[in-house]
Amino acid sequence: MKLKYKLIIVFFTALALELNSIAGFHYLMHKNWTGMFLMAFVNPLMTLPMNHFSIECKTFKDRFYIALAFAIGFGIGVITIRPFII
Length: 86
Prior knowledge:
It is a single chain. The protein is an all-alpha fold. Helices cover about 90% and strands about 0% of the residues. Helix 1 runs antiparallel to helix 2. The longest helix has 27 residues, at about 5-30. The model has no long low-confidence stretch (mean pLDDT about 85).
């Protein structure tokens, strides 16, 4: 798979992971333990693409791009999603 497609997948995974994390905090604040447990269970599974692609990369430069896509996905997730949920 080309690096460009990996970066897109990692970006959207980070965005979804941030949404899931914020939803978990929302459930925690409202004492909805079932929802909080579900969010905590799903979070590690959502990081699998980033972990897999990082291990698969051969050069440090490719790993840097993967980490950068993950960080940008998280950043955009915080800026766009947090005001609507919390």
